[in-house]
Design a protein that fits this description.
Layout: H1 8-18, E1 44-52, H2 59-76, E2 80-89, H3 100-110, E3 116-119, H4 122-125, H5 129-140, E4 147-150, E5 155-156, H6 162-193, E6 205-207, E7 213-215, H7 217-232, H8 236-245, H9 259-267, E8 275-276, E9 280-281, E10 291-292, E11 301-302, H10 312-325, E12 337-338, E13 348-349, H11 359-367, E14 396-398, E15 410-413, E16 417-420, H12 422-427, E17 433-439, E18 444-449, E19 458-459, E20 461-463, E21 469-471, E22 474-475, H13 480-487, E23 494-504, E24 507-522, E25 542-544, E26 552-557, E27 565-567, H14 568-571, H15 575-578, E28 593-594, H16 605-628
Parallel strand pairs: 1-2, 1-3, 3-4
Antiparallel strand pairs: 4-5, 6-7, 8-11, 9-10, 12-13, 12-28, 13-17, 14-27, 15-16, 15-23, 16-22, 17-18, 17-19, 18-24, 20-21, 23-24, 24-26, 25-26
Organism: Succiniclasticum ruminis DSM 9236
GO molecular function: DNA binding; DNA strand exchange activity
Protein name: Site-specific DNA recombinase
């Protein structure tokens, strides 16, 4: 039989009846185990954590006072046993790195050796809110749970209401470190900007009573030996082995040298009398990881700050050699070479195996061949249609870049390599070696044939199956960064440039106008993850063109959008051709001459070997004398 539904009043009456309570005679209450509290006098194995921010001897008193205080605290509780006092000295609390005592204490907790940790304050335990909360939670989840008591804040982490207060206190502690970090950075900046430099201990120097660097002559001999040997061609490993065999001491008194310690001495500008500040910086005050300063922070360099041990020219030469060694290249210091006369006047020969030259060096070398007021390129003469000729004013020569053809005379640059088209190789009569020349002011590149014996020769082609030369990829890590800087290119993109050959008699040269470039953009740069247009393009002059299914998209300068090419008459005097005057001097094979303005007066090899032998003999004699004493 179907039951009659209860009315609303009946439902309410049943609920009230249910909540009237239960007869205590039939209900047994089993109380929960009392939660741990710091003030309970139950038996506990207690650990104390102490941290002082610096290892200054004056902080020792602070540590001893804390140690005595907590020993007395534990002693006052009869059921407590002091496991250990864990102490970190001279360690920041914003990171767990290098906090050996702290990390060992946490491991002992996990091993069941500790029941409770006592520390002075949240800031002593951790100045990083993430570390503080995560570690206390991890300790509270152990079986049995380990609580942390922060005395100043009167917080015990095993209490239910502790985490909110702990979060606030940890946030304050972290922000305090942040403020201190900003104040310290501002203080360092003010010191540097007012000429107050930091000069840590360095091999070859001592500090006088005013904190200034003064030469330590005995250590200076070791420094000179390091620089002379490297300039003469020895590797860092060979130098380290030599110094170890001679028992030369480092600044810390060690007699074992490593290649890294040798490189550290070779890289330090203070050996030549200068001081460069802020070589590294710390991006985050939380992890204290240092990073090499590559323009991210302001730097200051003081010239002739103190007496030099090594000449400035020798120091610069060593830096060039070190930079070049990254690309596996060794040898004597090369010179920049520039063409003084002829059609290629002002062009500088590119050394494909040397990374020491900078864009400013190329500019100086090119400018050295021009007199005051002399232009690098001749002025374009106005061209008009002759009587009876077709008047082609208003007509344009379409840019070859707009036509997809495998017959293009082109070269493609990336930060790692250079590759010329097969047409380029054919137009230089299938020669396998070429010389690359650059005119920095006019953004022009010239390619001409050369022999394998040329020290600047580039092997751009190899023999093919049918006797014709095939293009090969040219590895250019040593010089391409400088090329990109010269032309103002973005390092993450590839660039393609169309060239034109000029030929006379049996001599040919290919010229490239580096301002007329196509840019290959990765497809993902044009749209973001939502499919919207991405405005983060290389610069405002570059715009995408027609859609493509390829992984990269070709982009042209926006100025090209106003026409198909250049005027018929102005094209006949294109920039890359205006350097070649058929009616005038040709001299396309004019040899490049050393640039005299480089100004490096490096110690010659004969004096280097003389200095090396002299210092080694002195070191050996000094070692025998010390042994006799």
């Amino acid at each position: 039989m179907k039951e009659t539904p209860l009315s609303k009043q009946q439902k309410k009456a049943r609920i009230r009846e249910r909540y009237k309570g239960v007869d205590p005679d039939i209900l047994e209450v089993i109380p929960a185990r009392k939660k741990a509290d710091f003030y309970d006098d139950t038996a506990r194995r207690v650990a104390v954590y102490v941290r002082v921010s610096t290892d200054d001897p004056r902080q020792t008193s602070s540590y001893e006072l804390q140690k005595n205080y907590y020993e007395d605290m534990v002693r006052r509780h009869e059921n407590w046993t002091l496991t250990e006092i864990y102490a970190d000295e001279g360690i920041s609390g914003t990171s767990l790195r290098h906090r050996d005592a702290f990390n060992r204490m946490i491991q002992d907790c996990k091993a069941g050796k500790i029941d409770m940790i006592i520390t002075k304050s949240v800031s002593r335990f951790a100045r990083n809110i993430v570390d503080c909360i995560s570690i206390t939670r991890e300790l509270g989840a152990l079986k049995p749970a380990v609580g942390v008591f922060f005395e100043t804040e009167h917080l015990f982490t095993l209490k239910d209401d502790a985490e909110m207060g702990l979060s606030f206190q940890a946030t304050f502690a972290q922000e305090e470190s942040h403020v201190k970090s900003n104040i310290m950075n501002a203080s360092i900046e003010m010191r540097f900007s007012h000429g107050i430099v930091l000069t840590p201990v360095l091999l070859g120097y001592d500090h006088d009573e005013n904190g200034e660097l003064v030469v330590n002559e005995e250590e200076a001999k070791t420094v000179r030996l390091i620089f002379f040997m490297y300039l003469y061609g020895y590797t860092c490993q060979q130098i380290a082995d030599t110094l170890t065999a001679l028992e030369c001491e480092t600044k810390k008194g060690n007699t074992t040298w490593t290649p890294a310690s040798i490189l550290q001495q070779l890289r330090n500008e203070r050996h030549c009398g200068d001081v460069l500040t802020r070589k590294t910086y710390t991006p985050s005050y939380l992890n204290h990881k240092t990073k090499k300063n590559t323009g991210d922070r302001t730097q200051y360099r003081w010239r002739n700050h103190h007496e030099a041990i090594i000449s400035m020219d020798d120091f610069i030469a060593v830096q060039h050699l070190i930079e070049n060694a990254k690309y596996g290249n060794k040898g004597i210091l090369p010179e920049l070479q520039v063409i003084h006369d002829g059609a290629l006047k002002g062009f500088v020969s590119v050394n494909p195996r040397w990374a020491g030259f900078r864009d400013t060096d190329y500019v100086a070398a090119s400018g050295s061949v021009y007199g005051d007021g002399e232009c690098s390129l001749p002025e374009l003469r106005p061209v008009e249609a002759n009587s009876g000729d077709f008047d082609l004013r208003g007509f344009e020569i379409a840019r070859s870049q707009f036509f997809d053809s495998i017959e293009k005379t082109s070269v493609t640059f990336s930060m790692k390599s250079v590759k010329f088209s097969k047409t380029c190789i054919r137009k230089l009569e299938n020669t396998q070696y070429v010389e690359m020349l650059v005119h920095p002011a006019e953004h022009l590149v010239a390619i001409r044939g050369t022999t394998k014996e040329n020290r600047n020769a580039i092997h751009w082609a190899r023999s093919g199956k049918k006797g014709e030369c095939e293009p090969r990829i040219i590895t250019g890590s040593a010089f391409l960064r400088t090329i990109y800087t010269l032309f103002g290119w973005e390092t993450e993109y590839r660039y393609r440039v169309q060239g034109v050959r000029r030929h006379r008699n049996t001599e040919s040269v290919i010229l490239f106008d580096m301002r007329e470039t196509e840019v290959f953009l990765p497809r993902e740069i044009l749209t973001d993850v939502s499919g919207d247009r991405n405005n983060n393009l290389p610069d405002n002059s570059v715009k995408p063109v027609a859609p493509s299914t390829r992984s990269s998209i070709t982009a042209y300068p926006s100025a090209w959008a106003h026409g198909f090419g250049s005027s018929y008459y102005s094209h006949s005097q294109a920039r890359e051709l205006s350097t070649i005057d058929i009616e005038g001097a040709w001299q396309i094979t004019e040899k490049a001459q050393p640039f005299a303005g480089q100004g490096l007066n490096v110690t010659p090899p004969d004096k280097l070997i003389q200095g090396i032998r002299s210092i080694i003999e002195e070191k050996k004699l000094g070692r025998k004398t010390d042994g006799a004493c």
